[in-house]
Amino acid sequence: xxxxxxxxxxxxxxxxxxxxxxxxxxxxxxxxxxxxxxxxxxxxxxxxxxxxxxxxxxxxxxxxxxxxxxxxxxxxxxxxxxxxxxxxxxxxxxxxxxxxxxxxxxxxxxxxxxxxxxxxxxxxxxxxxxxxxxxxxxxxxxxxxxxxxxxxxxxxxxxxxxxxxxxxxxxxxxxxxxxxxxxxxxxxxxxxxxxxxxxxxxxxxxxxxxxxxxxxxxxxxxxxxxxxxxxxxxxxxxxxxxxxxxxxxxxxxxxxxxxxxxxxxxxxxxxxxxxxxxxxxxxxxxxxxxxxxxxxxxxxxxxxxxxxxxxxxxxxxxxxxxxxxxxxxxxxxxxxxxxxxxxxxxxxxxxxxxxxxxxxxxxxxxxxxxxxxxxxxxxxxxxxxxxxxxxxxxxxxxxxxxxxxxxxx
Length: 409
Ligand code: HEM
Known about the structure:
Blueprint lengths: L31 H5 L3 H10 L2 E4 L4 E4 L2 H8 L5 E2 L7 H5 L8 H12 L4 H26 L5 E2 H17 L7 H22 L6 H20 L3 H6 L6 H32 L1 H9 L4 H11 L5 E6 L3 E3 L2 E3 L4 E5 H4 L35 H16 L5 E2 L18 E3 L2
Parallel strand pairs: 2-8
Antiparallel strand pairs: 1-2, 3-5, 4-10, 5-8, 6-7, 9-10
Helix pairs in contact: 6-7, 6-15, 7-8, 7-11, 8-9, 9-11, 11-13, 11-15
């Protein structure tokens, strides 16, 4: 997703202007490497001692308990995304991602109905089945016992094709998907540059202009989710394009991670895998449980609008506040034995992988449809297993295995 949040706003590149100069609340504050590798023991320690802690390496207050995370996410008047330090709006223009209050509602409302579960199933059920069928068919064609990396073979092309379809472009056409990914890379690169004080790149501006021109052509003709949203009437054409760019970012990196993490969890816990293979109705819970264990977007960022106390910390107005969704999702106050992957966990869906409150992920049911469909199709392959050198998920903001080599048969 975009460098707001769940963001590629690498902590090192966040402008330090306005960051309070505070001593670390915790004696052994985690480093960026700690949080990018296996953050869970560090998050557990912080949660137990100081659930809201100033973490110098992040230059932000880090929230690790589920209750404090929910407090932040559901109170946009106190914890805002509408702050010039977030660079997204400078590249894509104002969108639901960078606004709060009434303006946020005006930008987001047109997208809510077309992304509801029933509409998603009606609009995308068949095309998701078709893309998954084609990609898993190619995996079968590779043949048994040969290594296949599921990132380029399945997760990448599936998420890009579905986003293309949702914008009214032809997701079955590799050229169209290639163009979409080109815009995606240029705009993400530009937003990341702006976050570290550079001007908007020419490539970023050009990509936004191309995306806008292409979408406008398709909007008038098309029957797409985006056309439905723009027909709602509340947004100008430029605003529709800005929000479409946000949908594009929202749907690619995170969905790739969600799928790879789900497969990685299942193949790493053989007894849980056996239960799901025996009862495919468990796939949907297994996917929620994977989102709990390793949310593909591990953190989201806000700024405090006033001086306040939270979880024992004094937060000054203007301070950055980073909500660790990964930390909240393993809070033992909500989830018993939180480090265990359990495909029968009764409250798995109470995770915060899609955030909560007014900015809760608008595309979550589409992402669920894609990932559940793909996992079902993969588990139909006999003896699917990880290659011995398959890496675990890593990443500070976005978490997924860098590659996911598997074999079947
Ligand atoms: C089809 C796929 C997806 C689409 C189209 C999509 C789209 C979006 C959009 C447009 C927003 C902004 C909502 C707002 O600010 O009001 C958003 C927020 C969010 N999305 Fe998604 N998303 C998708 C998949 C995912 C996945 C797979 C994850 C993680 C596993 C995810 C995590 C989030 C989170 C955490 C937020 C909240 C950001 C915040 O509160 O700062 N999304 N998504």
